[in-house]
Amino acid sequence: MRALNYPKFISIESFYKPNFLLVADALRWICKRYCDEQEVKFELETEQDRVIFIKSAVIFIYQQTGLKLNPKKLYQADVEAIDELLKAVEPLYKAKKLNNISEGKSDDDQQQNIQFKQIRTTLEEKLSDLGQYHTMVNDITDNAARLYDLLSQETENKVSEHIEQRTVALARQVDIDEVENHVKHALSLLQQELKQTLKNMENIEKDELAVTSKIEKKKSELERLQTRLAQLQTVRPAYMDEYETVEEELRRIYSQYVLKYRNLHYCKQLLEKEKQQQSKSLSLMEDEFEEIEQQEQTATPKAATKIDADLLRLEKGITLYCNAVVIH
Question: Pick from 16, 23, 126, 240: most CB atoms within 10 A?
Answer without folding.
Answer: 23
